[in-house]
Amino acid sequence: MGATIFAEMSALAARTGAVNLGQGFPDTDGPPVILDAAVAALRGGANQYAPGPGVPALRQAIARHQRRRYGIDLDPDREVVVTTGCTEAIAGALLGLVDPGDEVVVLEPYYDSYPAMIDFAGGVRRPVTLRAPDFRLDPTELAAAVSDRTKLILLNTPHNPTGRVLDADELVAVARVAIEHDLLVVTDEVYEHLTFDARAHVPLATLPGMAERTLTLSSAGKSWSVTGWKVGWATGPAPLVAAVTAAKQWLTFTSGAPLQPAVAAALDAGDAFPTALAHDLQAQRDQLVTGLRAAGLTTYLPEGTYFATTDVSDLSWASGGDFCRALPERAGVVAVPSEVFYDDPDAPGCGRHLVRWAFCKRPEVIAEAVRRLGGADLSA
Ligand code: GLN
């Protein structure tokens, strides 16, 4: 296995001095409430192993967050496990729930750890493609991807890299297929707070008949601008959470002790920070999308997340990868080629020519990237 596309592109940005709109991480800090609580925990001696499932204060705060925001009731002792970022929750879920030969239906383009962990588990992925320009989930294609070997559907909404926020019709379609075929659903909702234009994120677990078959994953990194903390969680039925906990024992054993009470403080401080962040991100999205379009790039408007997508085929590029590798020299900017997020990027409607741009950056940084792109020759 090589380096992830995110590590490769961040290294490229560092090497060339380009504006890094590749890897999705904010360039501003999280709020004082979370930083101060972490310092207090560090100074207060919370520096030895946390309990495997996570410190009780954080598990309780996660349960309160799910109840307050979505009306989901969870037993913090049996239905919540703390993980080292959502990435470990994904790993734990797939290693804990998928046996060799089991099929996993996954939205494509997919976050790169999904295929890696499906492989680690010995599973077989069955992608269902979200296609430009709308990136909608087609219920017929979803149903067709299910077989008698399907173990679970791996969902992601708000969706990285397309920025789609699945709507009620799409969620109902997922629920219908899952119930009809008695499938589990693992749903990665790390961008749950980061939606735009008054669009609401609806957890799949809130749909009728879904709580008992849905494992919901999220984290603090995106919502509180602390992506380097790597504090995530999985919530849902006790047997599914137990499967993640069992796998987690052999992955990290426990997650960072002083960061857990800090994330609990952030969750209990309410939604003011993530709501303001989503508001700012919407303006940054508009700034970047306007700039990308002005630079001649076909650009799709995302409904949530950190990311916008462009199509570079009309600029005569053979692939988004070629475009992204030339971009630092051409324009002093780094973006991520979405082609790596597909089984077959050349299949109809797939992402050979799609490029992902992160707008979780200060307005002056986006302005500089846009200025550079506007002054560059972006055709092949
Ligand atoms: N989730 C972030 C992204 O999609 C960073 C991922 C990573 O570096 N593994 O860009």
TrEMBL record:
Pfam families, A to Z: Aminotran_1_2
Cofactor: pyridoxal 5'-phosphate
Highest taxon of the lineage: Bacteria
InterPro entries: Aminotransferase_I/II_large, Kynurenine-oxoglutarate_AT, PyrdxlP-dep_Trfase, PyrdxlP-dep_Trfase_major, PyrdxlP-dep_Trfase_small
Positions of the Aminotransferase class I/classII large domain: 19-352
CDD domains reported for this sequence: AAT_like (cd00609)
GO MF, any single term: transaminase activity
Protein keywords: Aminotransferase, Pyridoxal phosphate, Transferase
Stretches of the chain forming a coiled coil according to its record: none
PANTHER family (UniProt xref): FI04487P
NCBIfam families, per the entry: PRK07777.1
Name the UniProt record assigns to this protein: Pyridoxal phosphate-dependent aminotransferase
Organism expressing this protein natively: Nocardioides daeguensis
